[in-house]
């Protein structure tokens, strides 16, 4: 058996050193009895003889044990005097003022340890890939559709007539038409005019794409309020609106339309989303689009996103929701909150991270969202036409942000709102499909050329968008792909 001895040495005010030494047990060499064996030898003599044989080995073990504990003790006592140098290696070479700063930046106080390493005042290590978490905020929508009422005379008191070019004589039809720069410049005026706004047919009424069945066209023509989304190229899952959050009134009077291509329809059917005889999957009315107008699926998706007034010609209001989101709020409550209460005709949220087009250009190129040369050409064109950097300190800034989060748009189908939607689509048709690059330019130019008839735009907070919908990831992450030509 062994005996244990503890040596406690205080290093400083907050650290104690405990050295535990195992000492060999003291044994007696005299037997407690004197039993005589048959050979005449005492048992004690046999015990002494056996111990004598091991005596030399035991001495060796004791020496090694003493040496071991001697070096261990020497090590711990050296830590008492030089431990601070071991802990803060290099700080003794710094000047006194810099040494204090060095200690402050390399030590956690007891309060910081209590709060944990996730405290906001503790700087994250460089290279950390942890994203900022963006949370929803409270949105005081009405409790029921029974408590809301469309206000009278809240929109533009100076309406104008806006028509759309249906055909061109070109032998090579383009969905967006062949708009000249002169026509483009004139289209920014809020006057009685006919402009390019998609769905342009060629000579002899040659189609240019985005073809719909007559049955679907008839259904959409009768919609007074629409909620629409799209999935092309099997790029996403089908996310149905939360039916428990939608009132029976909205279920009967609001059209929920999901635009799909044949490929996506087959993919969704294989996943269990099979339309019924009327073409419905839950609340979604599936509308199949044939002859897609663009090879770039992102650009094709801008057709239902921006041109809801063309697809739903009788609608007074529309809501666009990206396929990565699920609607969790009654659409009429959304229209009431973002349009009627604020007397707005177009509502969109600001971007959750970026507010300047300069930053958006850098981010798109960094992530290879589109061909870099095409992005540069579009950006230089806008700069030459007066686009300025966003100044967050400017109290007279026309917008709280120059970069929108375009996955959720609420519109009243007024002439001014329809004009802005056409202009924004034409920029996407002419340049890149990255609509966040063209939003601020389009809005600012429209406002500058029509000071007496401004677009009543409500740019709301991104947290409000998150509160009224549920966000998911796309089925296909497009970021690893090479940028389109």
From TrEMBL:
Signal peptide: none
TOD1/MUCI70 glycosyltransferase-like domain residues: 167-474
UniProt entry keywords in alphabetical sequence: Membrane, Transmembrane, Transmembrane helix
Pfam families: TOD1_MUCI70
Domain of life according to the entry: Eukaryota
Membrane listed as a keyword: yes
Transmembrane segments: 67-88
Family annotation (PANTHER family): ALKALINE CERAMIDASE-RELATED, TRANSMEMBRANE PROTEIN
Protein name (database record): TOD1/MUCI70 glycosyltransferase-like domain-containing protein
Species, as recorded: Brassica carinata
């Amino acid at each position: 058996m062994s005996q244990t001895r503890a040596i406690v040495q205080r290093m400083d005010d907050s650290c104690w050193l405990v050295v535990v030494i195992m000492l060999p047990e003291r044994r007696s060499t005299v037997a407690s009895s004197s039993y005589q064996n048959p050979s005449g030898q005492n048992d004690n003599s046999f015990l002494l003889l056996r111990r004598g044989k091991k005596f030399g080995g035991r001495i060796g073990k004791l020496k090694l044990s003493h040496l071991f504990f001697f070096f261990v003790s020497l090590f711990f006592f050296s830590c008492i005097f030089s431990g601070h140098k071991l802990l803060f290696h290099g700080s003794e070479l710094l000047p006194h003022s810099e040494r204090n700063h060095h200690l402050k930046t390399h030590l956690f106080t007891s309060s910081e340890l209590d709060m944990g390493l996730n405290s906001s005042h503790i700087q994250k290590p460089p290279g950390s890939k942890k994203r900022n978490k963006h949370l929803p905020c409270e949105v005081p929508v009405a409790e029921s559709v029974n408590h809301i009422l469309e206000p009278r005379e809240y929109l533009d008191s100076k309406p104008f007539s806006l028509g759309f070019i249906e055909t061109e004589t070109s032998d090579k039809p383009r969905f967006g038409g062949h708009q000249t720069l002169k026509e483009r410049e004139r289209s920014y005026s809020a006057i009685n005019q006919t402009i390019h706004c998609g769905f342009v047919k060629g000579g002899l009424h040659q189609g240019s794409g985005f073809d719909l069945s007559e049955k679907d066209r008839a259904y959409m023509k009768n919609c007074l309020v629409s909620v629409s989304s799209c999935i092309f190229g099997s790029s996403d899952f089908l996310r149905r609106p939360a039916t428990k959050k939608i009132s029976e009134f909205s279920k009967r009077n609001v059209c929920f339309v999901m635009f799909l291509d044949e490929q996506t329809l087959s993919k969704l059917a294989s996943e269990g989303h099979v339309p019924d005889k009327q073409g419905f999957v839950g609340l979604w009315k599936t509308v199949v689009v044939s002859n897609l107008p663009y090879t770039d699926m992102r650009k094709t998706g801008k057709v239902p996103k921006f041109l809801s007034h063309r697809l739903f010609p009788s609608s007074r209001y529309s809501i666009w929701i990206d396929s990565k989101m699920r609607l969790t709020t009654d659409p009429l409550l959304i229209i009431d909150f973002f349009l009627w209460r604020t007397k707005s005709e177009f509502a969109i949220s600001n971007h959750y991270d970026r507010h300047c087009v300069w930053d958006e250009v850098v981010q798109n190129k960094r992530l290879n969202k589109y061909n870099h040369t095409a992005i540069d050409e579009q950006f230089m064109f806008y700069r030459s036409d007066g686009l300025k950097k966003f100044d967050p300190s400017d109290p007279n800034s026309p917008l709280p942000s120059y970069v929108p989060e375009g996955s959720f748009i609420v519109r009243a189908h007024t002439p001014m709102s329809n004009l802005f939607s056409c202009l924004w689509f034409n920029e996407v048709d002419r340049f890149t499909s990255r609509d966040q690059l063209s939003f601020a330019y389009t809005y600012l130019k429209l406002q500058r050329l029509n000071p007496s008839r401004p677009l009543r735009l409500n740019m709301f907070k991104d947290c409000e968008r998150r509160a009224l919908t549920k966000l998911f990831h796309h089925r296909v992450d497009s970021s690893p792909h090479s940028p389109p030509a």
